[in-house]
Amino acid sequence: MSGRQATAGDWVVSGIGLVAAVGRTPQDLHLALCRGLPCWPPDSPAPAGDTPPVGPPAAPIAGFNVREHLDRRGLKDLSRTSQLACAAAAPLAAALDGTPSSEVGVVLGSCWGSLTTVVDFEWETCTVPARLVNPLLFAETVPNVPAGQISIQFGWSAFNLTVSSGPASGLAAIRDGFDLLSSGRAPVVVAGGADAINTPALRVLRVDGVTAAGPGSRPFGLARSGAVGGEGACLFILESAERARARGARPLARLRGAAARFAPPRESAPGPRAEDLAELLRDLLEQAALDPRDVQLVAASACGSPEGDRLEARAIHEVFGAGPEAPLVTAPKGVLGETWGASGPLAAAAVIESMRAGRVPGQPRGFMPDPRLPPINLPAEPLERRVRNAVVLARTETGHLHALLLSEPEGRDAA
What is the pTM of this model? Predict the structure, then answer.
């Protein structure tokens, strides 16, 4: 089933705010992807007599302190997802200083929302006397609280939406923001995704074979066994090019198209088929009036899933072909891990920085390609390459498929 397609227009990304295990800026993110060092510890032998580690490998943001990003009272009582989201929004609030708060809407994608806080609150109510339960935890147990906290902290009141579509949540939020801009609901939209690491959920997903059995799992890799869990937040300012220029902001990229499709699992397939993703990509290219040969870079959603990576490689190969004329392909989750709702926006931020820097990241360290996959252009090392048009993908095992097409801002001889 095909989703409603956002209408293309003269829309741009004019600001990026992020918090990730590799840093706080698009430059930090891009540099880390080019270095190719995964954010989780490598394989190491357990000490004699020690038991194996509990749960799958994970890549948390070490030493995160929301007060380093935003100096407000009451932040310590927010859930970690709310803290990450507000930290990513802080530089955007500074960039939008002087913009009436009633003209800014918020769309946040999150896979887990405040699930960890729900569990913590339930645990306290069952294990300590009622008078000792922290009442502030209750306020953070509603799934849409992280998006609401962004609006509360910065006063943005045009609208506030939460989107939850698993790891595709962040790109789904950007697409919804694209739709809301096109329909005139607000002149400025802050959109993206955020999720905190959820260790209990990672353990459950390991039982189902969704998360990795060991730290050697890599997207499109020979030894892949699932996703390595991560966390982060990434938000964008979306607005018209004219409005960005009027307030003195330099557009970072143009939004040429955003497409979505829901292809639930069938009896013959455990997840969406390669044909579903290929059809989505063709819809996206048609919407942007581009040929596959006009695209120089594809940021894949591949996370190390044995079957999911295979179908994604098939779809990319089917639409864009192989050989030197095919676009380069990057898989940011090979360095960042699966950051869930933040994953699509973080990939988009990396793509925009590749456009600016003229450099595309290579494969992560320790990567061994799976020769059984269809051939796609995964560069072994970072390459100097001009990126005029790029596609960002997001995919879930339950059938949510999203794709975003970004182009160089005008003034750089964009295609």
Answer: 0.92
